[in-house]
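so the lab meeting is tmrw and i was supposed to have these ready like two days ago... anyway. pasting both below. for each one the top line is the aa sequence and the line under it is the structure tokens. i havent really looked at them closely yet so no promises
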Amino acid sequence: MEQRVLLCDTTLRDGEQAPGVEFDRPEKEKIARALVEAGIDELEVGVPAMGEEEAKRISQLVALKLPVRLITWNRVVLEDLAASYRTGVEGVAISLPVSEQQIKHKLRKDRAWLLEQMGRCVRDAKKEAGYIVLGLEDASRADIAFLKEIIKEAQKLGVDRIRFADTLGIMEPLSIFFKLQDLTREADIPLEFHAHNDLGMATANSLAAVQAGFKALSVTVGGLGERAGNAALEEVAVALKYTLKQEVRLDLKRLNSLGSLVSSLANRQVPRAKPIIGGDVFTHTSSIHIDGIQKDFANYETFPPESVGRKHSTAFGKHTKYKNVVWLLKSKGIDCNQDKADELLRKTLAKIEQLERPLEEDEILGIVLSS
């Protein structure tokens, strides 16, 4: 049986790197508990090296003894790792820049130094942590031969998982598939893909990574994260199940409440057209679509909204037809003849023109009651 893809949530780390977002201790706990109750596989909970307050919040999450692995993010620096060990966290992610751009112009070092420092940090972590993720920052711009060299060395050192990060979100699904498929042939340990959404391809790229043989995906609730954000947990989970037909441990019915919780605590409104959790994504307005779902919801929906904690709805716009109004009234148990339906349609279209927007079902029913 094919191994299930792990969903590794980093809302409490990379998500909190979104501009203006900061979660206090109770908020971190609420998000962590909600994700665990939904069935997440792993939580990346922060960066202890940021300071005492951040480390304290992480220690408090560790003290909850949640039934899921908690890991922290660290630079390839021994002092960072020491701060993580003090929190009591089970796992550590050690991130090292691997592109020539970042090795030379960020670290101002060379490949030999990086490999030596990687070895030093991993050997240290092996003594103190129960699980080690080696994060390859800016891997999408790195030399493929150097990536293979790192993978081989990481395996010798006993790393548990390797994370390939498309740090700038510049890759596309076809290049992801072919490049990452080449890497999976070199790896005897699980590979994880960490996508950024700068060009709007984070979910597609994450699926391509799975098709290339990757066994773990890094996600955040609502795609919250640095710049344009990360691969969205809700999009990736639903696409894994309904597009790739893969087993998903996550309770998809909790996705909507998760999105609402995180957007509220982050003080960021969910866009109305946001896939899965947006306000409009299960609302039909076109008369053709409304007619289609009257006959069979599968005409215009690939999966039932109830499966992700949502419901069908309709909104009536300027293209609303007579039969759409009749259907709405009948669905609410309201009898009507043709004259009544014609009159309601006329008033509905007039109201739509006045407000310059579609009307929700309740607004149309209000017109019925006022007639």
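ok protien two:
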Amino acid sequence: MRVLGVDPGLTRCGIGVVEGVAGRPLTMIGVGVVRTPADAELSRRLLAIEQGIEAWLDEHRPGFVAVERVFSQHNVRTVMGTAQASAVAMLCAARRGIPVALHTPSEVKAAVTGSGRADKDQVGAMITRLLRLAEPPRPADAADALALAICHIWRAPAQNRLQQAVALHTAHARKGRTA
């Protein structure tokens, strides 16, 4: 499974591609950041993020895109920019028919470090270890994007089984109502 992880942000949008399956060693395919100038017009910044993500999708051809789920922050302006960048990533994937998964920051931290309250340094250290890198990816947005991809690789099998069970239950419930 090849997953493109996106840590959305207007100034720095982290991008990371990881390949592998749960229970086996993972491989980093690529990591980087799409940057936009803080003083640029919002529409230009979103266009630059879209172009950057499209380039990564063209080059790496992931089967899935994992995006950090936007959560409420104290700074409404920051959360709005993050949500807009997140929507661009989802749109790019949807345009190509690539499934998108949203993961919360605490879910990603728990998957990668074992603690949903891990700090940036702990996440970077575990990413370095899990992907057998010489040093943590910089900036932290890049490491977070890799963590999102890893989280999805590890959680996708369980999520798929859960979705199948819910679908089966729903189908049985409908049969019972129509019979």
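from a quick look at the 2nd one: Residues 2-178 form a domain with the Nucleotidyltransferase; domain 5 fold (CATH 3.30.420.10). The chain has a mean pLDDT of 91. will dig more after coffe
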